[in-house]
Specification:
alpha+beta; elongated; 6 strands; 172 residues; six-stranded antiparallel sheet
Length: 172
């Protein structure tokens, strides 16, 4: 390849902008829409996932790993940790943080109700849905419902997330 050919395809260092590599076009607080949905790809939990979470959480209750104990106490199998199921609602599993990347300040709160047991082998489907957008001075508060369904279309977790975003200054 000639020197001319190799240099014509390279961009100058001052032409580089990391924002050119965004997965989706970033949006402002004002461009978000109540009812907008952000879904994560489905994921199937395995015994290895449950064991890894048990090690990280240090929760060593036998309901989470002992099949005999679990069955003797009314469960069909060891129960996946509820906090592990909650982790499936992580905004980063969806496009949401990419959409709000430049205006994100903080993940400020969450709540959750555990509505059904999850076992290794279950496939989970999580979703965040914007339920309110509240201006708060120079910032905005986004509230999103968080749900997790299993492969039988049962809701196994229902909750709420709140995020703090920068608003676009007036006249910007």
């Amino acid at each position: 390849m000639s020197a001319d050919a190799s240099t014509t395809h390279a961009s100058a260092p001052d032409d580089f902008d990391p924002l050119d590599f965004a997965i989706v076009a970033p949006r402002t607080f004002e461009e978000l829409i109540v009812g907008e949905v952000f879904r994560a790809p489905s994921r199937t939990l395995t015994d290895a996932h449950a064991s890894a979470f048990q090690a990280v959480s240090a929760d060593n209750h036998p309901v989470h790993y002992d099949a005999v104990w679990a069955k003797a106490h009314g469960h069909s199998a060891p129960v996946v940790h509820g906090l592990q199921v909650l982790a499936f609602t992580a905004p980063g599993a969806t496009l949401f943080p990419h959409v709000i990347g430049e205006v994100f300040i903080a993940f400020t709160g969450l709540s959750a109700k555990f509505l059904g047991e999850v076992h290794a082998g279950d496939t989970l489907y999580s979703e965040l849905r914007i339920t309110s957008l509240a201006p708060d001075g120079p910032n905005g508060i986004v509230t999103a419902s968080a749900t997790v369904h299993n492969q039988r279309s049962e809701i196994v977790l229902s909750g709420e997330h709140t995020y703090l975003l920068r608003r676009t200054p007036a006249g910007a």
